[in-house]
Amino acid sequence: MKIIFVYNANSGFINTVLDIGHKIISPETYNCNLCNITYGILKEKEEWKTFRESSDHELKFLHKDEFEKKYKQVREYPTILMSNKNNEFHELINKEQLNKLKSVEELINKLQNSIK
């Protein structure tokens, strides 16, 4: 079983620079709350990093373009999915639920409750 986190952002250096600028200039309109919760402006938040590194689950992090290319699926982003060995997905936390979260602690609690 693997947990896949899909950001509502595209991969690549230019997109990363644009995302950083957007977070600085207009954070209230930035469209990836998963990014906002797990990352500051330039780096991963320590509490999230600690959780991620200590997880018993295989965690995979993809940008939406990477997810769509690899799995040939389009979804609403951001999203957190659980997949089995056949790459069949079950949505653990959807876009609407992610957008209501305010902190790393809320995300971790929601994840732990969803996985049980």
UniProtKB/TrEMBL annotation:
This is GTPase. It comes from Crocosphaera chwakensis CCY0110. It comes from the Bacteria.
